[in-house]
Amino acid sequence: MKSLSILSLIFFCFVSNSDADQFVLFDKVFTFEAEDAVPTKSHLFVKGDELGEGTPQDWTAPVDYRNGTVHVRIEVMEKPEGDAPTVWSLCYIPNKGQKNNYGCTNTPTYTKEGVYEKDVKMTEFWENDSIIWTEGIKHMSLVIKNSTKGGKGHAHLEEDLSMYFPTKIRVTMVQVSKGATYDASLVPGLEEK
Question: How far is CA 43 from CA 15, 16, 38, 129, 155, in A?
Fold first, then answer.
């Protein structure tokens, strides 16, 4: 009987940990117009109350998301004609930071409508160590850019805003714990929006 209880406990722990291998940080559709780009300096925001239910306060324990990966998926639903090379910086704004107080990964560069995806190690994106991961994330900032100009390529600074606006995108960020693999089938409604 004792061995059955131990097996039940092991099974429960395994099931609990497997459920925690990934969570949706956010999954949101945005429409961005040229008249909104200049006042926001090319930024869109995902507020704290819009982050996924599974977003932990501490990203290091009991599940280690800080040393895992983020699966970035962008669906470009509408964009202006032309092939302007476009990328979005996806910036984590922490509750508590250091150095420059935020860090950013990015979407793949795109020139056409469609779905673009990539996995990024959480320890390898720009200024990832400026975030104190044990304190959690306050919100996310998304910045549309000309991908040929690096960090300085904010779209609102371009001479012709019609190359980038209006645009409609769906961005999904899925945090995957250390040692786990992204599983699209676990993302609710991925094909519905």
Answer: 39, 37, 9, 22, 10
Q: Is the pLDDT of residue 192 over 80?
A: no
Domain ranges of the chain: 21-181
Whether 104 and 89 have beta carbons less than 8 Å apart is answered as yes
- Contact between residue 104 and residue 79 where contact means Cβ atoms under 8 Å apart: no
CA 51 to chain CA mean position, Å: 10
pLDDT tens-digit profile of 71-116? Answer: 999 999 999 999 999 999 999 999 999 999 999 999 999 999 999 9
Instruction: Determine how many CB atoms are found less than 10 A away from the CB of residue 37.
Output: 23
Nearest residue to 67 (alpha-carbon basis) of 126, 139, 14, 120: 120
The order of strands in the sheet holding 86-94 is 43-46, 137-146, 86-94, 103-106
Six token digits for residue 80: 């202006």
Residue 31's beta-bridge partner residues? 168
Q: Residue 104 has which token pair?
A: 């950013």
Residue 148, sorted as left (phi over 0), alpha (psi -120 to 50) or beta, turns out to be alpha
User: Which residue do the tokens 């000309």 mark?
Assistant: 146
pTM of the entire predicted model:
0.88
Q: Which strands make up the sheet holding 167-176, listed edge to edge?
A: 22-32, 167-176, 69-78, 114-121
Instruction: Tell which CATH architecture fits domain 21-181.
Output: Sandwich (2.60)
